[in-house]
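Minutes, project check-in
Item: structure for the 395-residue chain
Input as provided by the requester:
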Amino acid sequence: MNIYGDILIHPLSSSTQEKRYLLSCNGKYYEANYSIVELLHFLQEYSTKEEAITAYMCHKQGRYKIEQVQLIIDRFIAPLFMVKERKHTFFYEKELFSSTAIDKFSNQFCFMFSKTYMLVVLFIAVLLDIYFFLSSDNLLMFNNKVDIYMVIGLIVFMLASSFFHELGHASACKYYGIKHGAIGFGLYLNFPVLYTDVTEVWRLSRAKRCVVNIAGVYFQSYWLIILLVAFELTGNDTLRYIILIMNLGFLMTLNPFFKFDGYWIASDILGVPNLRARSLELLSYWYKRICKYPIEKKPYLLQIRSLEKYGLLLYSIVVNLFMGFYFFYIIPRFFYRFVHTFPDKANELILYLSNNMTPPFALLRNIGSQLLFLMLIGYFLYRLVTPLVKRYVGR
């Protein structure tokens, strides 16, 4: 049996000057150039590896020796069959709904992705949202008449909206004829998130991948339209709060710096897979050039077309500045403010409770959000430091 036949070859839509390919094996996907794919075709065509190598060397008119071809196979093709632990985007992840369970929903909703239908819905949502922000008075002012039932209702709504968001990604996959995976819960940096496994999206063109990536926000736009219309009719304060929460969620989701939907949209617009790694690769390349260290391979930036090249260069600069700002300013500033303000808020809460008074919602919100953020940062730092400690202690 020819094991190389188990490797499937797909064209990869990217911005590289040379054509790239997608190799899939054991449910995992790998990027490859034409040279690797050409050799793989010979390995799949002949019954034994020895025959394939001989035919390949004849095709290349003796430009390679047997040892060189074998080295390429051992280094770039054979590892595809190895059972590797999957690289995790999240520090913690837990499957909530299997792909089979989600199929029942995604099959029903995939009809919603006709181009005209999507554009009309998104246009209406954006138009109503702009009108909401321009016409609403005292947009950020809220009364304190918030009870536990309202808080629970807001949490339930946010979870349902987030699940509908993930269902949008799954439905878009079905619309384009590819499979989706499970929906689960994960912890990315210090953000709790729901996620959908859409690994097979790499088989699609860049434009179709962008549709899959925006599909979550598109599905939530239906909720947003209903809420905006209801708010204009009633002026209900709770609806205003929910609309603002949804808009904040959109800003987070479409952020191109963290690995949310905005990151994958930026990756597909630029045509650069592993966008974050490629932006760091550029910094490493510059560092080695300045220090005159040997450079093993040309960075991805120098392999892509001119327009996307400038886009990747700009993204690399901005994202690394942003991540530095987040880790070296935002997080330290949070700890500083927590130490200086949390004790006073805790004392205020104790005074309310000791006098049998209901604490204002703003106070509970501030205390709860600070504690939640602290726990998430603590878990993130724990997962970040633990492997390093094990590595150095185990030496």
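Outcome recorded: The first strand starts at residue 8 and ends at 12.
No further action items on this chain.
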